[in-house]
Amino acid sequence: MASSMKLEYPLTGALPSITHARDKLLAKVFQFRREEKDASGATDEDFALLYAYAIVTGHLGKQIEDMGNELEKLFRVLDEDVLKLQ
What we know:
By secondary structure, this protein is an all-alpha fold. The chain has helices at 2-7, 19-40, 48-75, 80-83. Helix 2 (19-40) packs antiparallel against helix 3.
């Protein structure tokens, strides 16, 4: 995305999404809390930082997605057919 902005070049259309990684993190935290919370002595407050991280990551992901949409409007999306040699 940064290269597209600096070079004023179209996006490739394959920007990664953080939603899947964030959902996996939350699933692992939930699994840990369910299975090992009592054994480890962890409390709800111990997980507050992880949940705050997930919330902030979600907001940043949304803002990055919005920025990508704006870049698509400005420079379009790179079409692979344009790059093929004929």
